Amino acid sequence: MKKTWNKIQPHIIPIGLVILGYVVFQQMDQMPATLVQGLTYLSNMFLTSAMILGIFFNRSRLFFVALLLSVTQYSLVYGIFELSGKTEAIFQTFALLLPGNLLLFYLLNERGIFTYWGLSRFVVLLLELLLSYSLIRTDNQPFLRVLEQTWIPLPAGWSPIPQIAWLLFFLAGIIIFFKGKKQGQFLRTAWLCLLMIVLLGLHNRENPLSWPLFFGFAGILMVVIILHSSYAMAYLDELTGAPSRRALRDHLLKLSGTYVIAMLDIDHFKKFNDTYGHDVGDDVLKLVASGLREVSGGGKAYRYGGEEFSIIFPKKSIAEVLPHLEQLRESVAAKKYSYHKKEKVTQLSVTISIGVAQRNERYKTPEEVMKAADKALYRAKDKGRNCVST
Fold first, then answer.
1. Cα–Cα distance between 377 and 390 in angstroms, integer?
2. How far apart are CA 160 and CA 316, in angstroms?
3. Cα–Cα distance between 379 and 390 in angstroms, integer?
4. In Å, how far are 192, 202, 205, 248 from 175, measured between CA atoms?
5. Which of 39, 98, 207, 227 suits 4 as a labelling partner, its CA being 20 to 30 A distant?
6. pLDDT higher than 90, residue 218
7. 245-389: which CATH topology?
């Protein structure tokens, strides 16, 4: 059950916002008139919030995406470019710019907003808009033909988005899906959902409120991404993705009653680093952390530091958690890591030693219980490692 929850948890909020946005769009006819009238203001508020948080938390990529969505919304809703008779070309141009820039900013590194790199991105966006304005104003035929080009025969009016833009949306989604694996499940899903929300806003163009509605949900999603990233920086270990020592400290302050703390150490970890290099050592840490996330019995794992981890079992006794720790120890030992050197592949495995202690009359505070668990860990090592000691 816990393994299944760990798999679906990162996807719940991003996908939920896409579904909620579409459901709200379908029910707009039944919404109060005052809410519908204020939709554009709400959308602007969410996009502005994303930009402000992007500045505050130094999330330049999302800042520029929110900025571009704001410019797009103002252009489509208020017609700020003042090009009479060019509404279709303006819409198609923004439909082309959005997926391309979403992909661009996804691929770029965080280099600040009010820096040389940030200012260069301002310039790129400005040049894109000025060039687009010039091409539309002068009726540049090669450009307009690209917007109207049809490669796949489809029913007339099936989508107001030009096929070249559909291609960009598709390519952006494919690239984000495959490159996003290194950034974690949440960020990959969130950026894919951001792309989907923008696509829905453009695809439902026949309803003029589709832009503020879906772009507003895009703003909400960007706020969620920024807050999640800030939380991850503060409370998650960057290498393994496990809750960090700060998160462990906060959890210890909440403990009361009966609880168990386990201290874990990767056996012969220094040997892995010395023999195979620090990159393999990092992979071993990730391998062990992935196993600890699946610990049963109500335990929650934290990276304590180096090759050490901690697990807290609230409202449990040692007798209750020992079977779960033994199962964890066996599952980690069974995991394999493929080490590639030239054309040779070596299957590596690691083991862990575990020390366990419970709050009782002798160990009354979390600090005392943790020290007792640490001493038990040393006893496990003295016994030959790859075992659990109390």
1. 8
2. 59
3. 8
4. 10, 21, 26, 36
5. 227
6. yes
7. Alpha-Beta Plaits (3.30.70)
Q: What is the pLDDT of residues 31-74, one digit of tens each?
A: 777 777 788 899 999 999 999 999 999 999 999 999 999 999 98
CB 251 within 8 A of CB 302: yes
* Coil vs helix vs strand at 305: strand
Tokens 């060039």, residue?
131
Q: pLDDT of 128-163, one tens digit each?
A: 999 998 998 888 889 988 888 888 887 767 889 999
Mind giving me the DSSP string for 332-348?
HHH--EEEEETTEEEEE
pLDDT at 81 over 80: no
What values do phi and psi take at 303, rounded to 5? -90, 120
* Residue 38: DSSP 8-state: T
Q: How far is CA 363 from CA 253, 304, 359, in A?
A: 15, 20, 5
pTM of the model: 0.85
Task: Give φ, ψ of 305 to 5 degrees.
Answer: 150, 145
- Dig out the tokens for 218 from the structure: 């895009």
Residues 118/108, Cβ–Cβ less than 8 Å? no
- Which residue has tokens 């196993």? 291
